[in-house]
Amino acid sequence: MEAWLAGMSLGESLGEIAGLLLIFVFVLFITYQATRWIARYSAGQVRSSSFQVIETYKLAPNRYLQIVRVAGRYLVLAVSKDQISFLTELSEEELYAAKKEEDASEQAKQGQALPGGISFQDLWERLTKGKQGSDKK
Questions:
Q1: Which region holds residue 114: left if phi is over 0, alpha if psi is between -120 and 50, else beta?
Q2: Phi, psi (rounded to 5 degrees) for 30
């Protein structure tokens, strides 16, 4: 490192470091702009496409079930590393009925609602009120 600094004043060394830092920042800026442009370009292609992946479920590594909307039809596909297989077609009513059931079960898992449609908080309040009433007797 001394050989690099030999014959250079402190100002020259700092100037060289500042120049390298400026070049680094410029390269980062160009990379950022290129990434944004590519993202906008590919997003435009996706929006104009008549294909849309509605949902993906991972079965195993490199094996998925996908619900895909193609020209207004909902298809269930089995997707693996080397192959895509058509399984069935869903109507829009079947798709949204399944979504509603899934949302209800997800809420139940998170404690927001029990299968009967009552929230855990409501059930807890009922139980504690009943216990308070029996304690007063």
A1: beta
A2: -60, -40
- Close Cβ partners of 8 (under 8 Å, ≥ 6 residues apart): 16
> Residue ranges of the domains in the chain?
2-46, 51-90, 91-137
Q: What is the pLDDT along the chain (137 residues), one digit of tens a residue?
A: 555 556 678 888 888 999 999 999 999 999 999 999 988 887 766 665 678 888 888 888 989 989 888 888 888 999 998 999 998 888 888 777 767 777 766 666 665 555 555 666 666 777 777 655 555 54
Would you list the DSSP string of 33-101? HHHHHHHHHHHHHHHHSSEEEEEEEEEETTEEEEEEEETTEEEEEEEESS-EEEEEEE-HHHHHHHHHH
CA atoms of 91 and 85, how far apart (whole Å): 19
Main-chain phi, psi angles of 80, to 5 degrees = -130, -175
